[in-house]
Amino acid sequence: MSQSKTTSPLGEFIRAHRERVSPQQAGLPAGSRRRAKGLRREEVAALCGISPTWLTWIEQGRSQSVSAPTLSRLADALLLTHAERDYLFKLAGLKNPQDRPVERNPQSRQALRDAVNVIGTPAYVLDANWDALAWNTLAAELFSGWLDQPLARHNLLDFMFLRAESRQLVEDWPVRARRMVAEFRADAGERLEENSIRQWLDTLRQGSAEFDTLWQQHDVQGREGGERAFNHPQRGRLVYQQLTLNLAAAPELKLIMLL
After folding, report:
1. Is residue 80 within 8 Å of residue 25, measured between CB atoms?
2. Tens-digit pLDDT profile for residues 107-122
3. Least confident of 24-33, 82-91, 201-210, 233-242
4. Which has the closest alpha carbon to 143: 133, 128, 156?
5. Which helix (H) or strand (E) holds 135?
6. Which helix (H) or strand (E) holds 111?
7. Which is the most buried residue in 143, 159, 165, 259, by most CB within 10 A?
8. pLDDT digit string (tens) for 168-181?
9. Per DSSP, what are the bridge partners of residue 256?
10. How far apart are alpha carbons 166 and 142 in whole angstroms?
């Protein structure tokens, strides 16, 4: 079967889901002489606050100028699920502004908390801001001055740059510190414009000259595994291989294991 020149994966997805939504589901009158299956293009356009021509262009894959708010209204009109909404934005080459996997899947946090407790090596979970959400006893014993402090904020960057213990514990501290800042910048991405993130980073820059210098270099680096060496105050030099895993349902959560 030949495919029309105007078809696109984005258009096929939108049309398929237009046909699945009844007028009643969309809050529209069904009408007595209705031949269209599901919603008409004009009806979806009206629900989204755009012209039918503009919706036609989107369905043809001409999404270069489409905005995230327009796609969000389209997703609402088509009654898309979270997974379907994410897929719509991926097809359009945009980031879903409602992409908060942990908020819509809170059981992810509990699943990772349960996981670290059965791992037989130091393991901990970081959120998008690199706050530790969970860790096992072995991790608390290893990270003296960080995860063994019950009342402190368990942020990895705060520990690395604001606590003197980190310089003694982490071997090759300057190398690890530089890499850690570059990894966080890559990880945070567009969230760096959020007020809460900016305020925290400003506080960190004021509290640590080293962090301020590294942050101004704008280095970006992907988070990778490899050898991690520590000089533990009681146990001496310890060497591990670091493995970082992301949860499919909440990819901003990281499970870090030191093997």
Report:
1. no
2. 777 888 888 999 999 9
3. 24-33
4. 156
5. strand 132-135
6. helix 107-116
7. 143
8. 999 999 999 999 99
9. 124, 244
10. 11
